[in-house]
Amino acid sequence: MTKPKQQEFNLDADTGLPLPTGSEPSAAVIDVTPALARKWLRNNTHNRTVRDRAIDDYARDMVAGHWSLNGEALKFSREGAVLDGQHRLHAVVAADVTVPMMVVVGLDPTAQETMDTGRKRTTGDLMGLRGETNAHVLAAILRRVWAWDTGDFRFTGSYAATNRECAELLSERPDIRRSAEIAARTRNAFPHIPASMLGVSHHLFTRLDADETAWFFQRIGDGAELPVGHPILALRARVTSERLESLRLPEFRYLAYLIRTWNAVREGRSLDRLVHPPNSVMPQPK
Q1: Boundaries of domain holding 39
Q2: 83 vs 105: CA distance, rounded Å
Q3: What is the pTM of this model?
Q4: pLDDT tens-digit profile of 64-114?
């Protein structure tokens, strides 16, 4: 992260905040240290309930050096109260790092009512801005591959990958773009399995055998030339039946089906019926 050039401004001796340059709100870029964040948080007296997950997400990005000076400001009232930015300040403390941030001071306290009312930029939005094909499918796959690699096999963990962590993962594993392409194509041919689970399984299986993975996903899509008792036919029958019954299944169940089918194919086993009891341990691809 490139360190921005520090501005010349005066600090309030008591609060450590930049002094307004006039009667109107003013802004400055400040290196926010953990000590400074703690001081400002002592005047965080009227704000939303703190969300630990947001703090954890921000702190991981800060520790990894992914936190960017993007124009989003910490905002303070004329009296020095925190109006916006408490999660970022808590994250600086949790990460124990110094982060340059834009700071706006001198705001009317009522301005807080209009803050954070916009729609949050999602990972899919980020991928779209970068010109990625199948942006939202790609984003869903990246988040779940990241979760899988951290041991969250059911995608129900207490925190999820941040936008920057997803971008970093894509940089490290550009082949996930191919998994998103195959997932979208397979979903179009056979619309009974979520594209996110198709993409995650494609990525996991490709690590083991790329050629067999290509054949496996072609057959999921078309079911062609498969003998009675073939695991892929059992998979197609299972998810089609559940779709017709309008069952709402957690997405990890579909991944479990895909992995059980893949393992059966790799082991040369027949399957007349595919099952994965709700409380079963998530199988691992072999």
Answers
A1: 26-107
A2: 10
A3: 0.69
A4: 998 888 888 899 988 888 888 889 999 999 999 999 999 998 888 887 777
Residue 84 phi, psi dihedral angles, 5° rounding: -155, 130
Q: Which residues, 6+ apart, have CB-to-CB distance to 164 below 8 Å?
A: 61, 64, 66, 67
Own/partner pairs, 66-70, CB within 8 angstroms, 24+ separation: 66/1, 66/162, 66/164, 66/165, 66/168, 67/1, 67/99, 67/164, 68/1, 69/1, 69/4, 69/29, 69/100, 69/101, 69/102
220 & 146 share domain? yes
Does residue 100 contact residue 30 with C-beta atoms inside 8 Å?
A: yes
Q: Say if CB 93 and CB 57 are below 8 A apart.
A: no
Tokens of residue 152, six digits: 């969250």
Distance of CA 126 to the CA centre of its chain: 11
Domain count for the chain? 2
Contacts of 55 (CB under 8 A, 6+ apart): 87, 90, 91, 94
Chain CA centroid to CA 160, Å: 5
* 57/152 same-domain check: no
